[in-house]
Amino acid sequence: MRKVLAITVILIVAMVGLAKTELSFWYAWGGDEGKALLALVEEFNKSQSEIVVRPVFVPIGQGEKINTALAGSSTPDIVTIWDWMVVPLGESGALIPLNDYLDSAGIDESDYLPGVWSYGAYRGIKYGLPTTLNAYAFMWNKTLFKEVGLDPDRPPENIKELDRYAELLFKQDTRGNIRRLGFLPNVSHIYFYVFGGQLWDPETEEITANHPGNVAALDWVASYYKKFDLQKIRVFQATWGEMASSYNPFYRGQLAIQEAGQWELLFIRQFAKSDFEFGVSPFPAPEGGREKVAYLNGSFWAIPKGSKYPDQSFEFLKWLTDNDQAARFAAELSNIPPRVDSIENPAFRSKMLPNMEIYIDMLTNGYVYFFPTLPIGLYYMEELNQALQYVQSGAKTAEQALNDVQQAVIRELGRYE
């Protein structure tokens, strides 16, 4: 009997020793991008014997499902969230701060590209790790430049030239209907920084929505909607096709110059005609403005407060965001890895598309900014979008609209102090 009990104990101990910690990992990529990530997960699972990661596809959307899950009892161990979600969720207590884990792992600011370490952090507290980075640049159709007598290899060097190019490239029919836009500012807060403004002062921790540079930029952005007629622009935009398709207005010659993230390089290869010619450059600036402004955004991986295995979850994230894995994943997405060493990794370099180097140069040598990572970041963004609409329609001046944003956002942020 004692022998049987001893064997039973040995078997139980052996079984416990063989048991793996299972992590629930919510990821947000489908198609080839999702396959690339799943391959990395499988590689991690095979690389060690203590942890098994179970991936679950959950699109981020506006975060409703994620918010519900984090507030309930069925919390995943790792989630994928948009950058604007990180600090609000972290400050609400839904995410685990990663500072101690990062310190123990010897991971610090020097491992990341300029500005990225504070991205997704609030008052020094890091609530997530960036998956990959998106950056925006200026992109133009070379064929259309040639059509109107512009040098196809020379982008506008400043805002005044951009305005002139936009008018030259503009086309309408005999009834006044727009047939081609030369340029239309879209991501308006980029120009706040291009014009020398900012949305948040990290030194004083103050909202700066009504910075003089922002006012000048918003005036300029709105001038396009006035000059080319807001209603006609909306009618024309209704004819545009999906961005990730051959009906993209840029590929079809309906939009001559655009703001474009580096993912557009991959889309052009996939959806544009093989003879489509385009150029990429940093954003032109006004006199006294900022040169080579780089706006970055993207998604993050984070560990929810309700994770049953936070230590093991960080072990997986540490592996997933390390040099080789970060390089390979970014290469598959035509995104930019956030790490310094990954930028030079052959796994990334070997798959870089033409013009990607311009985006990388902007992030490494330009003025890098991201939308302020605040507890009320989404509210701030929505208020700015509303301000743009007021100014476009003539309901408010740029100064009035941004003064209103300033007061509203300060009031909202005060609720979190």
TrEMBL record:
Gene3D superfamilies: Periplasmic binding protein-like II
Pfam families hit by this protein: SBP_bac_1
Domain of life: Bacteria
InterPro entries on file: Bact_solute-bd_prot1, SBP
Coiled-coil regions listed: none
UniProt name for this protein: Putative ABC transporter, solute-binding protein
Organism annotation: Mesotoga infera
